[in-house]
Amino acid sequence: MSTDNPTPIIIYEDADKTVDVRLDASQDTVWLTQRQMGTLFDTTPENVLMHLKNIFRDGELPEQATTKDFLAVQIEGKREVKRSLKHYNLDAIISVGYRVNSRRAVQFRQWATRILREHLTQGWTLNQQRFEANARELEAAMTLVRKAAKSPELDTTSGRGLVDILARYAQTFLLLQRYDEGLLTEPAAQAGGRLPSVDEAWAALAQLKGDLMARGEATDLFARDRSDGLASLLGNLDQSVFGEPAYPSVESKAAHLLYFVIKNHPFADGNKRSAAYLFVDFLHRNGRLLNQEGEPVINDVGLAALTLLVAESDPANKETMIRLIMNMLADHE
């Protein structure tokens, strides 16, 4: 199974047919799944599989040399799940095409040859479809910022924080428009990240609560648990899917920790302040609170504005908010 850097994705278009194609310039080939071949040749995936079995059974092509597994991210409910999908190279695609519809096979072979030549000589391709998708994500985030900026709870200082968030996010969008990543959902991230234990999280919150109560800024209801909400939340963040962490990076864990504490209301009072504190505490535990210049990755004003932005966001915009937080934390150097 391939676990290397993501293979570049290009777009094949023919009349009303649009198919994402994986390019492997190192092997002078392209890759499609069984379902994508069905779309390409106007047939069913089952029919494609039948032809592939015959091709391999007859010895026309060696199966091991013409197939490859790639990890693909699929949305299942509200979760992103990685699954291994079998792909077939250009030789297998053309062989199936000749058996299904030779005209389409010739058209695809001509297109693939031209695309491979361009990649080998130029080294890159701008994927217009992905660029437009990122532009929509940026506009969605800007809309959320503009909405939050009108909140009566937002003072002048927090307003400056929102402006700072918007400026940094726009810069992030431009910096992340790289060919090998392509999507705003995949910023450069640091794998791992140790979540606090339930006891460690409660100890941190107890310290915060004591300080706030001493200053008259909180009551005994502050950070009081509701039905083991904190333990459940931390357990969900630490879960695995098919043996892989559901939240595999420091950025992903941090973003979801902030979001879930704010939105799930695990405490009787002080959910936003508790979320911000646990967020900062997590970054500190993992050596990510400060950047290379020794400055906080998100200053206090920016964090306050970001917390309010998450609190006022529509749950339907959850993924946009997660992407925003992750990209703010990502190392863009």
UniProtKB/TrEMBL annotation:
Gene3D superfamilies: Fic/DOC protein, Fido domain. InterPro entries: Fido, Fido-like_dom_sf, Type_II_TA_Toxin, Virulence_RhuM-like. Residues 171-327 form the Fido domain. Coiled coil: none annotated. PROSITE patterns: FIDO (PS51459). Signal peptide: none annotated. It comes from the Bacteria. Pfam families: Fic, Virulence_RhuM. This is RhuM family protein. The gene is rhuM.
